[in-house]
Amino acid sequence: MRWETALIRLAELQARLLELTSAQPDEWLYRQFHPDLSPLGWHLAHCVFIEAHWIKACLLDLAVPTELDELYFPDRAPKARRGARLPLRDTLLAWSQAQQAEHRALLANGPLSHPLAQDAYIVRFLCEHHAQHLETMRMALAQAQYQKSPDNAPNDLPPALATVTHSAKSSQRPTWLPGSGISLRQGHYRIGSTESVFDNEQPQRDVRLNGCRIARRPVTNGEYLMFIEAGMYQRPREWSAPGREWLARSGAQAPGLWRRRDGAWRQIGPDGMQALQPEAPVCGLSWFEAETFARWAGGRLPHEYEWEAALRTGGMASVGQVWEWCANRFHPYPGFRSFPYAGYSTPWFDGRHYVLRGGSRYSEEILRGCASFRNFHTPEKRYLFSGCRLAYDA
Ligand code: AVJ
Ligand code: FE
């Protein structure tokens, strides 16, 4: 990518981080809306700090004060302590804006000679890094909205019975129409990317797939309602052993971003609460819910390679509406080498993280609908903008 193009993109993402943070009430910059999510102010400052690390310290060999390391390197600062240690609003915003401008100025004179500057690599990496933090900030905002909008009918029918008459619906399952999906023939498919800034998408290679059918679109709210109305949250025996344990522990009765108001389901997003749209992709699922739903519907989750092959084959609709949980765990491709730092992927090849593909409607455009991009999270998370897609053996 041209250096100038990468710089324009970086400036856009910097501005978006600053705008999103500035738009929040004071107290919201410091609050942790979920134990696994950092305060909004921390995300902004972390992104600024990471820019300084790569541009000043690594590329230009400039001295960078080390006293911020303890707060803004994620592995050094426990999430619960981040809010209390952040500077006050005005200082935080002014510092961020000034640092961002300084970083742009340092890059403005053209490509630097450092190897990491080749093809604007580190600038592109920063853009993709910031884009992911922006989405996490939107997840935190959705949690804020969730807390602001409690269910308003506590003595209402239990959730499984709340929407329509239960008995008529309970035996219904989404019907898979043979031939309606994308047919992936047995054969070899290209996986990974040579252009991606991320180490975990490389090296690119061909893998052999057995062939499968994969739905053209993600599972919808309407289809997921059938799963709820069939009483699946009340039937632990239909879940896998770890799924059952999660179900008991979480007390879940519906997707993590659903609320019940006036006897009907609503969807929570970063901007507030909306009526649940039956045709829209279901959003806010844990991997356990996605996996159990797929089995109940007579199918399974796709392996991430099947997902990638199907996207490249064409015909997959609504990509970029929700992240889609895949069947498999996050793992290194054969010949994996970590860059630009070991912490981006390597710690998460721990057997606990599952892959998500696609991108959500709250993802920045540069992340959305990319064939090779691999997101990864632990399976109990349900504050993500996450859904799923059905696959079937051929
Ligand atoms: C790949 C989205 C799980 O946000 O924790 C951001 C990306 N890595 N800064 C995360 C990331 C370092 C990562 N996810
Ligand atoms: Fe980060």
TrEMBL record:
Keywords: Iron, Oxidoreductase
Keyword Transferase in annotation: no
Domain DinB-like: 10-137
Biochemical pathway: Amino-acid biosynthesis; ergothioneine biosynthesis
Keyword Manganese tagged: no
Residue ranges occupied by any Sulfatase-modifying factor enzyme-like domain in the UniProt entry: 182-315, 319-391
InterPro entries reported in the protein's UniProt record: CTDL_fold, DinB-like, DinB/YfiT-like, Sulfatase_Mod_Factor_Kinase, SUMF_dom, SUMF_sf
Protein name stated in the entry: Sulfatase-modifying factor enzyme domain-containing protein
Organism: Alkalilimnicola ehrlichii
